[in-house]
Amino acid sequence: MIVVPSRLWEYLIAAYLIILAPGPSVLFTIARAISWGRSTAIATVLGNALGMFTISIFVALGLGPILQRSHAVYIGVQWLGALYLVYLGIQAIRHSEDDADSMTDLSAGKPSIRKTIREGYLVGVLNPKSMVFFAAILPQFTDRPKGHMAEQLLLLGAIFCVMCFFSDGLWGIIAGTIRIWLSSDSRRLVRLRRIGGYVMIGLGLVTFVNSILQRK
Based on the structure, what is the number of domains in the chain? Predict the structure, then answer.
């Protein structure tokens, strides 16, 4: 039997507001959609959602209290996520001109679905915003008198991830559609891939700077 928290509607509103705030997952999805198209964007969103659900599992098993007590662990997660985003951005820029003459073929140089899901998963599981939400906010919407706290946390985490999948997926479809419209000019796609790389690097740097400021 699934235990449903009594504050579920309040949680849905809070989750929606969190998702609307542009974060690493949204901008990362847009960057990937511009670089490789809609299918890659959807695969990225799927991996991202699975990564975030992994965080909710950790919270349900007791990671939340650890993160709330240990500032060093939280900062470490932020740094890992920042470094990975910068790495992906550099890779996108380095390979932006690969097969430039055939870039009007939207499948040229396209990463496999498995690889895309894996990369999206790593971004999702290292997303500081998700970590904060699941570890600090999610437990506030549970009902302790009902018991089964792990089940409640997993349910709320799953709901959040499904909402993220549809919201971020919509952004990916829109960005991917714009890419198709611009695909008649290979030079534009080269520039777009570079922009996508710079966006990811910028996200990584912003995450890193924020983690430094939080230590002061």
Answer: 1
